[in-house]
Design a protein that fits this description.
The chain is built from 15 helices and eleven strands. With 414 residues, the chain is of the alpha/beta class.
């Protein structure tokens, strides 16, 4: 009970932004969609795919759209803020356009509602906390399901029915579906990029021949966490509260959330009978470990190979990168992180370069060590900036030339 009180306490300071309509008694699942400077056509695809769900009543699920930007962006009326204000108007129209969809809107964009910082983990946590509170006021309680996804996704017509039935039939704590990538029409190297992304993510959620349609998280092997991508995480209210909700970090909060649920040895399943379609678009505005940044890096490597500026196509080695983060963060908490330890961690995790200037590494160590005494978002963002500026280009890589290079020719035949 104490954990629950701490979890929900910040919500009671924001009563003016609570969702007004009560949750429908039959509601079992809430889709949480964080929105920041998104094109309206993408949001329309997302909502349309949820409005045409099959074999499910409108009252069985709701969509919680949370539109956000920083308080400073609101005061300055930045282009992101203006786009978000258009989005709020668009969503209000969609409440009438899609009468079979229980659409709820949380405004964290307007100047009297926006947070000081703009951070997707904070926004996911804010929406998740409200969904928790709404479920706890209903008879679904701890069995309510929170489905975290992204604003550039759309879904197969059976996702809601399959998800609810899976949680009921298998008494699940967490669930993910198959993940399929869609490319923007302007993106070149579609086939090559799609394959590279599958290799980066470990290819465990994509649809492939002979893969079992249903598989459970196996804790006896060194299997990756099934819940690992922000477009495709479903979790019960009970487990969401147990892990403290979404970790408030500068980036990769989805990976960290999945990791914490994994550490509980929760009952988690991958169900390939339903599909989350996500837009693989490059973006350098996103965080250190974000999907958009990784797509941008993968596309850059493919282009350099195609232009004969490089002899190989590489992706970040995700497992080694996660080990590096764990090593340095644990050392920082112990008070052991210094330049020598940082170099040793980079060498152990096979960084492409280790011989940096001492002053450069001292800045990285200083930024990471500050998190111990000041874990706020500004410090997290400073830490991320130092790692991006100094280390990111040299993170451990995996050579995927043999698997991806033959597909570059296919792209030009389309």
């Amino acid at each position: 009970m104490e954990r629950l009180k701490r979890f929900l306490a910040p919500m009671f300071l924001e009563q003016h932004t609570w969702i007004k309509p009560a949750m429908s008694p039959p509601c079992r699942l809430a889709v949480v969609v964080p929105i920041y400077d998104e094109p309206l056509e993408g949001l329309n695809k997302l909502l349309k795919s949820l409005a045409v769900q099959e074999q499910v009543f409108k009252t069985e699920f709701e969509v919680v759209a949370i539109v956000n930007n920083s308080h400073r962006q609101a005061l300055e009326k930045s282009k992101e803020y203006l786009q978000n204000q258009l989005t709020i108007k668009f969503l209000k129209k969609c409440e009438k356009r899609f009468p079979h969809l229980a659409l709820r809107i949380i405004d964290k964009s307007s100047s009297d509602c926006a947070y000081r910082e703009n951070n997707v983990s904070l926004i996911r946590q804010r929406a998740g906390a409200e969904v928790v509170m709404r479920f706890l006021k209903s008879d679904k309680g701890l069995k309510g399901i929170i489905f975290f996804t992204d604003a550039d996704c759309r879904f197969s017509k059976n996702i809601i029915r399959e998800a609810i039935d899976s949680f009921n039939q298998y008494n699940l704590d967490g669930l993910a579906g198959a993940l399929e990538f869609e490319m923007e029409s302007s993106t070149i190297h579609n086939y090559a990029l799609r394959k590279a992304i599958e290799l980066f993510l470990g290819n465990n959620q994509t649809l492939k021949p002979y893969a079992p349609m249903i598989s459970f998280q196996d804790y006896s092997k060194k299997q990756k966490a099934i819940l690992s991508t922000g477009q495709n995480i479903m979790v019960t209210v009970e487990k969401f509260i147990q892990v403290g909700g979404v970790p408030i970090v500068a980036s990769a909060s989805d990976i960290e959330l999945g990791k914490r649920i994994f550490e509980l040895k929760a009952r988690v399943m991958l169900n390939r009978k339903f599909i989350v379609y996500t837009l693989a678009r490059p973006s350098l505005r996103t965080g250190l470990s974000s999907f958009g940044r990784q797509v941008a890096e993968i596309l850059r490597s493919i282009k350099q190979y195609q232009q004969k500026k490089s002899q190989s196509i590489k992706i970040q080695h995700r497992q080694l990168a996660e080990i590096f983060y764990s090593l340095v963060m644990d050392a920082s908490l112990r008070g052991d992180l210094d330049v020598d330890f940082l170099k040793a961690a980079m060498k152990e995790t096979e960084f492409e370069k280790v011989d940096f200037e001492t002053k450069e590494l001292e800045k990285v160590c200083f930024a990471i060590n500050r998190l111990k005494s000041d874990p706020g978002l500004p410090t997290l963002e400073l830490c991320e900036q130092e790692i991006l500026k100094t280390l990111f280009a040299y993170f451990p890589k995996q050579d995927i030339t043999d698997q991806v290079a033959p597909l570059i020719a296919s792209d030009f035949l389309v």
